[in-house]
Design a protein that fits this description.
Chain A is built from five helices and 13 strands. Chain A has 260 residues and is of the alpha+beta class. Chain A has a single domain, classed as Clam (outer membrane lipoprotein receptor (LolB), chain A). In chain B, helix 10 packs antiparallel against helix 34. The relative contact order of chain B is 0.11. The chains are: A alpha+beta (260), B alpha+beta (988).
Chain lengths: 260, 988
């Protein structure tokens, strides 16, 4: 009798395990859902940076994205506010292939200056906010080891440990991924002493053109008490963006897609 | 007699008194375990003191922290500090400090070479370990209440964790840490050196200009961690080779270390002083049983006073740690008078009780008054505005009062109980009464000679005194009020050494912050904005687009009218209302050109020819624009690809770049720009810095302008361009928008928010970090005065309010309060004591006379300070009250006995002979005991204790001489007025 129970339990366990996709599947799907919706996209972003003392700064920008071959992507970020950053542009070509670095340019209109930025650390602050460049464009899946540590009714919890710990300021981070939409809902970063210090959370999700889309995300820096909220509006997918837009030529003369 | 009531009771029921004394001591002693220490000189100022409020607000606004400065110096290597090994060690140390955490055993642990490492932080000597235990100095206290590291990791300043902006390969701009990786080769090490020297924020701060030293700034959550953090660094670097010397300094470390060492001093100096006094008493009285009494009085007074302080919940502060040292001589002095007299008159009565009654009988009044004056002197400190000084003054006053009560009760009780009659019998058993009373000794002889001299040459003495007073007054005029907590350590102390070495290599280890912000926040009103735009628009557009400009001005008028009728001026409206109209205007003026430009810009440059370009623009814009374009393109028809495209876009831009909408944004940025995004205000800050660099004591200043110029230079740098062209960009960008765009790059560096130590996030307040090479208050004061004078002579483009903060400045403020407070408390206690003297002697003349020796003493001591150039600092200031309290005692005893003896002998001439026997003897013994008793303080490693020891000795010696010489001489000169003629026969 006992043997039967043990056998049944074993079968049950296998069944559950089988129903669960592999961790690689999960992170691939999550990456797809978070950063590769449609072939291209456009969104207006209102970024509110709150420092640890309660002061806030607001930035408004329009972001264009186009997926190219091999999971590579191009981004065009066009600032509208504050007035002193009006028309400032960031252009990013994200490269996912091994050994290839991203390319980054910026346009500073008041200095009449176009500058290419060396592919350095992607974990530097994005325009002084608590978001880092990697949060905006997505962290390359190949940089971490992934491990499914928990599976709740609605979410997978994946632990990501960097392969090169010296390159990043965290020791690992966990991501809670929605089982239905595969959207990452909450990422928690732990420092080298194992202390939670940073949380990135999708606080609002809407379905746009059939795609579940994060329309508000918040990052909190537990060390400084600062936080940044990105509120997305006018999100559009598959608008047929011309790849030409993502070139240096459009830094000085912004495309209609962002000015209108 | 009423005055004897207390003493009589003690003689009758000595056990009750002893039991009471024991009970009191036990009660107050029981408070000791509750003790808490406060090492922070900042607490010399009340918490709500305006400057502390400002200081803390500035720290909060700019996220500034107190830091431990760790200087690493390498003079041996030809490349100085920039060699592969040393930089590697510095990087490893930084990582270890960053990894500080509490391990499972609750002990500090770091990660060393990938493995946990828990250094033994305890002091090497068992004595120091024991002391640390007693005083609750836990060297492992490196974590806050939540168990987080006391070190604020993200804010550490070290080559491996500070930003650098530089040129990378292929004309790219790199934003990275100054030392991304510890160097592997000499070339890499020297590249780091070059980067550091090229960054104005790091040269002179992080790296020494001579390339031989690097300073790490380790921010800590509270100053009280600094001793432990310094200790941790010492332990972590203990295995470093000798050529990499490690020096630790900074005001917090100095203050915290002083606190820790002060407790050690308290535990060693006070008992040593007690021992010295004991030995001297033994020398004078030769009866251990007798001299135990004054020692007990001192111990009970000190224990009770400290117990009271602790019991009342006060922290033991730098000031209160000196209570024992101040109280010891005062409490001993009272009982020495009794003992001296008891010893000398026992043979008359040969009965302890009778002798005591006799002694107390005629010492009661002088002793009451000497105690009251001392109490007044110390209690007057309660009028100072410095909380620890108030606490100190009142507690010493309490201790003096207690010592008096004990002298009146406990000493008699003790004599009754514990001094065997036979021991006293021996004193004069075989001798004649006369010789017993006047046992000749060297001191006796000297005193007798003194008495004769004072009588015969009184005019000479008075003249000499006047001369001394004159010289002293000159000396006082030269007194320099100055203090520096780092100088509280002896020259050879490691903190002083570190201070010298690091200030030699760097811009200065003393920190002050000068904050500047507009006096009033003035956001321009809508009308002002419209007026400014009306001024600026014709300048930008008038020539090229006269018609459109006229229409734009018309739009401005319309908005103004609308606002007028609406009756309110919403600043947003005057901008937003205009944007759509300006865009329409743009469309009319340059819409066709823009359409043309759009048609060109979207073209794929790949294989682009003029023919294809022509086709693409065939429908764009209007015919007129197309024909101008075709004409302008005539010369470039042979071009291809992106070259052709760029040329075409260039032509279009020439016509379409004028935009009224852009103008609105520009004007908005310009008009709304906070002070420190305005080029002219930033330039003002830069010129203030230029001025400050010329001030001697300032080694370096850092501001947001330094970061801005450096970033602007690197952003605009063009490889291969003439150096002059690149150098021209080492400047403040020309417009608020340009400034903002450069600042935004700095906001997004690797080490986020480091810019905001120098400017607020709203850019309406700037913080100038001033590094001084000296922490002397005089130097800081001079800098403050210099800045004020410069700002008055050079008005800012916008009215700016300057405010100082930082520990170095804070010291100046509390010192000012200290000096003024001490002076007024000295004056008030002088007045109180003068009145007391007049009442005691029931004679204004005697009252004034009593004040003379102490006045001369105070003048002389402070004159001496001025003449030898010793700074008037905290301990010197406190000593003024001690001088007053102690030196008036001698005068009281002297005058009281002089009057008594003059009455007895009928004239001063005869009385003075007796004056210089027993009364002068008691005074001299007291003076010697206190002077010599405090010599152990001279060997203390902390300067304030040395100062106290030296000055106590000097005060005693001078007031002793002043009393015996000057009073005797003056009485001789004034005897006609002082003593009414009495018939000696009347006296018994």
């Amino acid at each position: 009798m006992e043997k039967w129970i043990a056998a049944l339990a074993a079968i049950a366990a296998t069944t559950v395990a089988c129903a669960e996709p592999s961790v690689d599947d999960i992170v691939n799907k999550a990456n797809e859902a978070a950063y590769y919706t449609g072939d291209d996209g456009r969104a207006e972003v209102e970024m509110t940076i709150t420092d640890g003392k309660g002061g806030t700064r607001t930035r408004k920008f329009t972001i264009l994205r186009k997926d190219t071959e091999g999971g590579n992507q191009k981004f065009y970020v066009y600032f509208k506010e504050p007035a002193d950053l009006y028309k400032q542009v960031f252009l990013v070509w994200k490269e996912t292939a091994d050994g290839k670095d991203d390319s980054r340019w910026m346009w500073l209109p008041a200095l009449n200056l176009k500058r290419s930025i060396a592919p350095g650390d992607k974990r530097t602050s994005f325009v002084g906010s608590d978001f880092v460049y990697e949060d905006v464009s997505g962290r390359n899946l190949k940089e971490d080891e992934h491990e499914l540590v928990e599976s709740t009714d609605t979410q997978y919890v994946v632990k990501n440990t960097p392969k090169k710990p010296g390159d990043v300021e965290f020791s690992y981070y966990t991501v809670r991924i929605d089982k239905e939409t595969f959207l990452p809902r909450k990422a928690e970063y732990y420092d080298k002493n194992g202390k939670l210090y940073r949380i990135v959370e999708a606080t609002r999700v809407e379905t746009i053109q059939g795609f579940p889309t994060v329309t508000e995300s918040v990052v909190k820096d537990l060390n400084t008490g600062g936080s940044t909220v990105n509120a997305f509006s006018n999100v559009q997918y598959d608008i047929g963006l011309d790849e030409n837009i993502f070139t240096e030529r459009f830094l000085r003369r912004p495309p209609r897609e962002v000015t209108k | 007699m009423k005055r004897l009531r207390m003493t009589s009771f003690s003689i009758r029921f000595p056990w009750i008194i002893v039991a009471l004394a024991l009970g009191t001591t036990l009660f107050f002693g029981a408070q000791f375990p509750k003790v808490r220490f406060d090492n922070d000189p900042e607490n010399m100022l009340a918490h709500n003191e305006p400057i502390r409020v400002v200081h803390n607000a500035v720290k909060e606004r700019f996220s500034l922290y107190d830091f431990v400065i760790v200087g690493i110096v390498n003079e041996a290597d030809p490349d100085g500090i920039f060699n592969v090994q040393t930089l590697g060690r510095i990087d490893a140390l930084t990582r270890e400090l960053l990894s500080l955490h509490c391990n499972a055993d609750g002990l500090p642990e770091v990660v060393r070479a990938g493995a946990p490492f828990a250094p033994d932080l305890r002091p090497a000597s068992a004595w120091k370990r024991a002391l640390a235990k007693v005083f609750g100095n836990d060297v492992n206290r490196l974590f806050d209440g939540k168990g987080a590291s006391a070190i604020i990791g993200p804010e550490i300043i070290s080559p491996g964790v500070v930003d650098n902006i530089k040129q990378a390969d292929h004309g790219q701009l790199a934003i990275e840490y100054l030392m991304e990786q510890p160097p592997a080769t000499r070339e890499e090490a020297l590249a780091i050196r070059a980067d550091a020297m090229n960054n104005p924020l790091y040269k002179g701060t992080l790296v020494a200009e001579d390339g031989k030293a690097i300073a790490l700034y380790i921010p800590i959550k509270a100053k009280t961690y600094s001793y432990n953090v310094a200790n941790l660094v010492e332990k972590l670097t203990s295995d470093w080779p000798a050529e990499d010397q490690v020096f630790i300094t900074g005001q917090p470390v100095a203050q915290d270390t002083f606190g820790v060492e002060m407790l050690v001093q308290m535990a060693t100096s006070a008992p040593l002083a007690g021992l010295a006094i004991f030995l001297l008493l033994l020398l004078f009285f030769r009866r251990i049983s007798l001299i135990v009494a004054p020692m007990l009085v001192a111990i009970i007074s000190v224990v009770s006073t400290m117990g009271l302080l602790i019991g009342l919940g006060y922290d033991v502060h730098i000031m209160s740690s000196m209570i024992a040292i101040f109280l010891m001589p005062i409490s001993v002095a009272d009982s020495v008078h009794i003992l001296s007299e008891f010893f000398d008159s026992y043979h008359k009565f040969r009965d302890k009780a009778q002798t005591i009654r006799h002694v107390i009988g005629h010492l009661f009044m002088p002793m009451l008054y000497t105690s009251l004056t001392t109490i007044a002197g110390f209690a007057s400190l309660a009028t100072t505005p410095i909380p620890p000084v108030r606490v100190f003054g009142l507690h010493v006053a309490f201790g003096v009062a207690l010592a008096w009560v004990l002298t009146m009760t406990f000493v008699p009780a003790y004599i009754m109980l514990f001094v065997r009659t036979r021991a006293l019998e021996g004193v004069c058993r075989v001798q004649e009464q006369e010789s017993c009373e006047t046992r000749p000794s060297r001191l006796d002889g000297l005193l007798r000679w003194l008495g004769r001299f004072s009588y015969m040459y009184w005019k000479l003495i008075v003249s000499a005194t006047l001369l001394v007073v004159a010289v002293s007054l000159y000396g006082i005029g030269r007194i320099q009020v100055n203090d520096n907590p780092v100088k509280w350590f002896a020259q050879s102390h490691r903190i002083r050494v570190a201070d010298r070495v690091l200030n030699d290599h760097f811009g200065g280890t003393y920190t002050a912050y000068l904050t500047l912000r507009p006096a009033q926040a003035a956001a321009p009103t809508c009308a002002e904005r419209l007026a400014a735009m009306r001024m600026a628009a014709p300048k930008r557009f008038g020539e090229a687009l006269p018609q459109a400009t006229a229409r734009f001005l018309g739009l401005l008028d319309e908005v103004e009218r609308k606002l007028h009728t609406l009756g309110r001026a919403d600043e947003e409206r005057c901008f937003t209302d205009l944007v759509a109209q300006a865009e329409a205007l743009d469309h009319e003026a340059s819409g066709a050109w823009n359409a043309l430009g759009d048609a060109i810009v979207y073209l794929d440059p790949e294989g682009l020819t003029y023919a294809r370009l022509e086709t693409a623009v065939a429908e764009a814009g209007d015919a007129a624009v197309r024909s101008i374009f075709a004409g302008r393109m005539a010369a470039f028809r042979n071009m291809e690809g992106s070259e052709l495209q760029e040329k075409a876009l260039g032509i279009v831009d020439g016509y379409a770049s004028l935009s009224f909408a852009d103008f609105l944004y520009d004007m908005r940025a310009e008009l709304e720009a906070p002070a420190f995004k305005r080029p002219e205000v930033l330039a003002y800050l830069a010129s203030l810095q230029d001025y400050l660099h010329g001030v001697d004591v300032i080694g370096k200043t850092s501001s947001a302008v330094d970061a801005l110029k450096k970033a602007n230079y690197e952003l605009n740098y063009e490889e291969g361009a003439p150096a002059a062209r690149n150098e021209a960009f080492y400047a403040i960008p020309p417009t608020p928008s340009a400034v903002a765009q450069v600042f935004t790059q700095l906001e997004g560096m690797k080490k986020k928010d480091s810019l905001f130590h120098l400017v607020t996030r709203s850019y309406d307040e700037a913080n100038l970090w001033v590094q001084l090479k000296s922490g002397d208050n005089v130097d800081m004061q001079e800098v403050v005065a210099d800045v004020q004078a410069w700002m008055e002579a050079h008005p800012a483009p916008q009215d700016l309010k300057a405010e100082w903060a930082g520990l170095t400045y804070l010291n100046v403020v509390w010192q000012k309060k200290m000096v003024a407070g001490m002076f007024s408390s000295l004056l008030s206690s002088f007045a109180v004591v003068l009145v007391m003297m007049m009442v005691l002697f029931r004679s204004p003349l005697f009252g004034i006379l009593a004040m003379l020796p102490l006045s001369v003493t105070i003048l002389f001591i402070y004159g001496l300070i001025g003449l030898v150039g010793k700074d008037y600092d905290m301990p010197v200031a406190v000593l003024s009250s001690l001088t007053l309290g102690l030196s008036v005692d001698f005068a009281i005893h002297f005058l009281e006995r002089a009057r008594e003896l003059a009455k007895k002998h009928g004239n001063w001439r005869e009385a003075i002979v007796h004056m210089f026997k027993e009364p002068a003897m008691a005074i001299s013994r007291n003076a010697i005991i206190i002077s010599i008793g405090f010599t152990p303080l001279l060997f203390a490693p902390l300067v304030p204790y040395k100062t106290v020891g030296l000055f106590l000795a000097a005060i005693m010696a001078v007031s002793w001489i002043a009393t015996l010489f000057i009073l005797a001489a003056l009485i001789t000169g004034l005897q006609k007025w002082l003593f009414k003629k009495t018939d000696p026969a009347d006296s018994p």
